[in-house]
Amino acid sequence: MTIVHPDRRALLLGLSALLLGACAGPAPQYQDALTGLHNLPGAAAPLDVPVTAGPTVALVVGANIEKVLQQKADGDKILKSFGPLTNTMQVADSDPQYIITGAISILRQRYPQLQPVDDLATAAQRKFATTIVLDFTLRPGSMSGKQTTANLVAIAFDARQQPLSRIETSGTTTIGYPAYTTRLREASDIALAAFKEKVDSLWR
User: Fold this and answer.
1) Average pLDDT of the segment spanning 10-19
2) C-alpha torsion angle, residues 36, 41, 31, 97 (rounded to 10)
3) Which of 46-55, 61-70, 103-112, 153-162 has the lowest mean pLDDT?
4) Which pTM was predicted?
5) What is the DSSP string of the chain?
6) Is residue 82 domain-resident?
7) Domain tally for the chain?
8) How many C-beta atoms surround the C-beta of residue 73 within 10 A?
9) What b/e sequence results for 55-67 when a residue is b if at least 16 CB atoms lie within 10 Å of its CB, and e otherwise?
10) Residue 176: which pLDDT band, with cuts at 50, 70 and 90?
11) Which residue would you say has higher pLDDT here, 31 or 80?
């Protein structure tokens, strides 16, 4: 059995918290999901309204996904600057690709014909019957006892780019002690499970 000296244990726990806090950093200044995409805010779309999609369905990413990806890139630079002390668990846990892939997979299960396009204008030009804007925000906590939250939103539009329905879900976890990760993946799992339930029950 390996015995860790109390002073060394305190140092290790302190380092884990330091590395976690360094990666979290301040959250981006998030915007409405439809900023730069539509003249209406996302809140203008009716919440939790049943929708039947048309034969062609486009997927557009919302205004905040690029911000989340940049936050991840900035956080990884800080984390990896610690070299051998890099908190690899946090690097993996904080990867937003997990929630992106999960949400798109849920939509693709419902709409196998789903096709990514650059924006709503392109979807209208290509005459898609239905367009879905998918967006999310991630707010990782910075230390033990703080909360981490993942939010998902999807907004469905008709062929005339009129909003038909909005689905919003979230997942929240509390960072444990020692704070090896922000538990972002767990928060994402909660948000994704609720998202799947709403897509399956409301959207056809």
Assistant:
1) 39
2) -80
3) 61-70
4) 0.81
5) -PPPPHHHHHHHHHHHHHHHHHHH-SPP----TTTTT-SS-GGGSPBT--B---S-EEEEE-TTHHHHHHHHHHHHHHHHTTGGG--HHHHHHT-THHHHHHHHHHHHHH-TT-EE-S-HHHHHHTT-SEEEEEEEEEE--SSTT-EEEEEEEEEEE-TT--EEEEEEEEEEEE--SS-S---HHHHHHHHHHHHHHHHHHHB-
6) yes
7) 1
8) 9
9) ebbbbbbbbbbeb
10) confident
11) 31
Of residues 71 and 15, more confidence is placed in 71
In a domain, 179, yes or no: yes
78 domain residue, yes or no: yes
Domain boundaries, position 173: 6-202
| Residues comprising the chain, all counted | 204
Q: What does the pLDDT average to over 130-136?
A: 96
Higher pLDDT, 80 or 60: 60
Q: Is residue 1 part of a domain?
A: no
